[in-house]
Design a protein that fits this description.
Radius of gyration: 17 Å
Low-confidence stretches: none
Number of domains: 1
Largest sheet: 8 strands, mixed
Number of helices: 7
Number of strands: 14
CATH superfamily: Metallo-dependent phosphatases
Distance between the termini: 36 Å
Shape: globular
CATH topology: Purple Acid Phosphatase, chain A, domain 2
């Protein structure tokens, strides 16, 4: 089983990178399933309904989110109609959407789930992921040996601790939220592929994929401004994960592909705000 995980897609530049680079990447690598984190896709924070559908059309099979999952009202209203979009599983059971699901990948099934960390989030609070994890993985492994978890967390310590808890119990645990790819991708002793943070897809010469000057102004004034996209050096970051039939990871390879194509004016104007 070959899985491509696309690191957090940030803004219009991130969408452009997916549109430009994903088709050839899927063909070249013979990918069975494409998972992408879309927590910062629309305007740098959250995911809009139209962008969710567009990324699906571009070839992404599963979209994961995180603490920004409910930032866009049109997605909240449609979550239950979009089985390919996942929100964290360890939030209120009354919230719309699903936190885990099994997807068809050729003749096999792959289970994908999202967990939210507890440290550093002030607008969305999840239940303890360490209590949720054993039951979650036991349930998913009854459906398929291929189990991939997106752990959207703010601190390295929380991620590392959850990697240790999940060791040997799932195929991969991918850290997200930091938007900076870490250099510690590895396979644990139990056969689980892990990385502290998968990084981002979009502008690399930026602040977390957003315009540097707007971030400076935010720190100077205290007024958030997500209105300006960053377009300097567009890169698709992600991970290629090879999983054996028994569900153990055989390889995890970080990828960083620079987008050589110049975006058109229409790509820059595309909006779902």
């Amino acid at each position: 089983m070959k899985i491509l995980y696309i690191s957090e897609i940030v803004g219009k530049a991130g969408i452009f990178a997916v549109k430009t680079l994903l088709p050839s990447l899927k063909k070249e690598k013979s990918i069975d399933l494409v998972i992408a984190n879309a927590d910062g896709t629309t305007g740098g924070y959250g995911l809009g309904r139209n962008h969710a559908g567009y990324l699906r059309k571009l070839g992404v099979d599963v979209l994961t989110t995180g603490d920004c999952c409910f930032y866009k009202k049109d997605l909240v209203q449609n979550f239950d109609r979009l089985p390919y979009v996942l929100r964290p599983i360890n939030i209120s059971p009354y919230a719309p959407g699903l936190g885990s699901r099994t997807y068809q990948a050729g003749s096999e099934k792959v289970a994908v789930a999202v967990l939210l960390g507890q440290s550093g989030f002030d607008r969305l609070h999840g239940d303890n992921p360490f209590i949720k994890l054993p039951e979650l993985l036991e349930r998913l492994r009854r459906e398929t040996p291929y189990v991939v978890l997106d752990f959207h967390a703010a601190t390295t310590a929380e991620k590392k601790a959850l990697f240790a808890q999940a060791d040997g119990l799932c195929s991969a645990v991918i850290g997200s939220h930091g938007r900076v790819m870490t250099a510690d991708a590895q396979i644990t002793a139990g056969g689980t592929a892990v990385i502290t943070d998968a990084g981002r897809t979009g502008s690399i010469n930026s602040v977390g994929g957003t315009d540097p000057q707007s971030r400076i102004q935010e720190y100077l004034t205290g007024i958030p401004d997500w209105s300006r996209d960053a377009w300097d050096l567009i890169v698709l970051q992600g991970l290629m994960i090879d999983i054996a039939p028994n569900g153990k990871a055989r390889a995890i390879s970080p990828i960083q592909i620079v987008c050589q194509e110049v975006p058109h004016e229409g790509d820059r104007k595309d909006s779902d705000d």
